[in-house]
TrEMBL record:
UniProt name for this protein: Biopolymer transporter Tol
Pfam families: PD40
Classification via Gene3D superfamilies: TolB, C-terminal domain (2.120.10.30)
The family this protein is said to belong to: Belongs to the TolB family.
Length: 298
């Protein structure tokens, strides 16, 4: 079932200036629980999901207008635009990944393979050349659940598994140069739920194990690389959080190239706040969603 707003709750689409940490309200609604903004490659539009559907808003004004997904079953908040902005890749509630032309031409194309009963695909990234998708493959079998990082050709083809272990991984996304995949994982902790940020090279690069990037008491999810590959925006949950729930107070943080961390925003959110790539093409702004309770009407 899609998430719904609580009584007295609003969804606020916010634009954050990463240098000044100023936050501007782009859109507020008490009827749609919007999630997971993508910024279009031309910088003109924001893509969000709500109630299993996909919507577009202009960065300055206009929308939300529904995007025709061609009859795909309800989608979740894992959707990413191709580098040319012509295609949106979505994770459907049927467990598969689809490609949809944003101009409405043609039928949706299923990209993912049948990887066995109980296997589901959760998309998070597209390579800078548009040829590969990064996703989390979740396998449920024998009462256990494994979540690993996989790659998949966007045109269709054989899957490539990057991690293969018991540690829960999520949020896999390419670096702008295509050499690395960034993700969050619990592999560095014996405490359930204590995720940190990692990266590892893609198969074409020299092989090495996952490299840890954050080392703190908070629970860190969804690393998103700035267009120049220097900064990482991510969602940081309170210590002790398990998974990535909604309706908790989270920090949206920025990891700088020198290892320093800055807080950009503190919002009520978590799930839906910044699940997918959300940088503007200039690298100056990110888009996030907050879910305040008992917010005054606007």
């Amino acid at each position: 079932m899609p998430r719904e707003l609580l009584p007295g709750q609003r969804a606020e689409l916010l634009i954050v200036d990463v240098d000044s940490a100023t936050v501007a309200l782009r859109h507020a609604t008490d009827t749609l629980l919007i999630e997971a903004p993508n910024w279009s490659p031309d910088g003109r539009a924001l893509i969000v999901n709500s109630a299993g559907r996909l919507f577009v808003l202009g960065v300055e004004a206009g929308g939300p207008d529904e995007i025709d997904l061609g009859g795909i079953a309800g989608i979740n908040n894992d959707h990413v635009l191709s580098p040319d902005g012509r295609t949106v890749y979505v994770s459907s509630d049927d467990g598969h990944i689809y490609a949809v032309a944003l101009d409405g031409s043609g039928r949706p194309r299923r990209v993912s393979n049948d990887n066995g009963e109980g296997f589901r695909h959760y998309l998070h990234g597209v390579s800078p050349d548009g040829r590969m998708l990064a996703y989390i493959g979740v396998e449920s079998a024998g009462g256990t659940v494994r979540a690993n990082v996989w790659l998949l050709p966007s045109a269709g083809g054989a899957d490539i598994q990057l991690t293969n272990d018991r540690f829960p991984d999520d949020g896999a996304e390419f670096s702008p140069d295509g050499r690395w995949v960034y993700f969050n994982s619990e592999r560095a902790s014996a405490t359930p739920g204590h995720a940190q940020l990692f990266r590892m090279p893609v198969p074409q690069a020299p092989q090495a194990g996952p490299e840890q990037l954050t080392f703190d008491e908070r629970v860190n999810w969804f690393p998103h690389l700035s267009p120049d590959g220097i900064r990482i925006a991510y969602v940081s949950f309170p210590p002790g959080t398990v998974g990535h729930p909604g309706n908790v107070e989270v920090l949206v943080r920025l990891l700088e190239a020198d290892g320093t961390i800055r807080d950009l925003a503190r919002v009520r959110g978590g799930q839906g706040t910044m699940n997918v790539p959300s940088w503007d093409p200039t690298g100056r702004k990110i888009a996030i969603v907050a879910y305040p309770l008992d917010a005054p009407p606007r």
